[in-house]
## 1
Amino acid sequence: MIVLGLTGSIGMGKSTVARMFADEGVPVFDADKAVRRLQGPEGALVTAIEAAFPGSTGPDGVKRDVLAERVLTDRSILKQLEAIVHPAVGEARQAFLAEHANALLVVLDVPLLFETGGDAHVDKVAVVSADADVQRIRTLARPDMTPEKFARILIHQMPDAEKRKRADFVIPTDVDIEETREAVRRIIACLRTDGDS
């Protein structure tokens, strides 16, 4: 099995690219989705997060906007939250890998792959990238996003240029969508060939 780490900064189109891998029959582990499940109604982490950050949860689980505001303004809070969340996501990832043990290729979709050292646990890394202006326009079009919040998020993410330097593959998303899809298909073909050799 070849494990491909898929990453990219906010607004780069990573979710779209992850769906393209899935459309091609590649099993995809979505770290964000795992976190939402763990933090959702009756999620396994809700009690621990409420204990660490009183007032950050409710009947629907973790109040992501409330917690995000705290995390984005205080790095020590982010570290504390990561200590709760990362082990649980790691368990979910291991269960996914076990479930797909016979696959030639799997994708781990992890937004902060480099920032959390996750690149040490994959065979190859693909970075989803777009022009900074395109990234900004996409991100600011999201509900409840402001230029100030966008700037605070970027502080916690490795710069796109650095991610691209460290990547084995770069997938552009500021091009025609079929070009992006072709880039995904080329990576799959390349890695499946490597896996067969």
Note: The mean pLDDT is 92.
## 2
Amino acid sequence: MTTIGLRRMRPRDPAEGHRAASPLELLFDLVFVVAVGFAATNLHEIEAEGHISSAIVSFAFVFFSIWWAWLNFTWFATSFDTDDWLYRVMTFVQMAGVLVLAAGVGPAMQDGSFTIVVIGYVVMRLALVGQWIRVAASTSEYRATALHYALGITVVQALWVAILFLPEGWPRFVAPVLILLEVLVPVWSESRAQTTPWHTHHIAERYSLFTLIVLGEGLVASASAVIDGLRHAEHLGPLLVLAAGGLVIVAGLWWIYFSHEQHDHIRGLPSALVFGYGHYFVFAAAAAVPAGIEVAVSADAGEADLSHASVAATIAVPVALFVLAIWALALRPSLSVGWNTVVVVLTLAVLATIAVPEVSLVATALLVAAIVVVLEVADARARR
């Protein structure tokens, strides 16, 4: 340890026992959920106005910026969390970037103005560059990997800043290219040098906790929408059905996600990339479900400019996406062909409920509950 209280940023032991999320990591997650909540709220508002396609595109882009910064911090921390004062300060800088990004979510999704989002995003990413430089200075084994990360992230951030100066309309065409470059940086960095030492149990716990927080945010948002609707509704029956159905759906998604251990699916770089990147769909779908429930509440009050089928789709589609994503990432390898087929068929049936929008919510809730039952029965038979 040096005289100014810094530790050398050496790799953590990937086999370390009882490795759990730190208080700093938990606070980090909570700050990110603020941005996720803003994104879900704006998704609901744009969907309720009848602009489904633009709502999905803007939400997908904004959510990528939130998720990608969280993912990179999480995988870095599992390998190099020294928890000294500089590490904490740099993490707080990333949190500040999240709050700036959160302030820009509304303008980005409502008006297509991404300046504030890009500024917040770049702040988060450049703070992580500083952490990678510390790694390069602290350990020769991972110096090349760290320098690849630092260089790749810095170049892409410069490009993000550059698109703010492009003529109006051009950024929407350039942004997908930059997103592709972002997701290629870890592939390039990890495959060309020493792979960083992930703690698989720690990573699985971090992903589980973030899923839990996002689903909990969904419960709060859905409850708030239903309570607000109850104040103005003349007929309580439909709102009570929405409240009950939303609770069953969120509880079922929680049950499905936590029905199987996930750490053993991270075995090397390819599986780590699939696990890490695939969770974009899990997180985004979990954040979109409460927006759909809020749209249904607005539609019940006559405040949504949507067809009944479109209202049903705002719930059924993210629910089906969540189940299919976690099935592909964690459930499929643990189930037999027969049980896998049943889960997929029930999930596709969730999408089919859009054709009968009058009962779509109830049917979706029942189908999610049926998937939970299937997983429990399959697990019980496997144990026997």
Note: The chain has two domains: 23-192, 200-383.
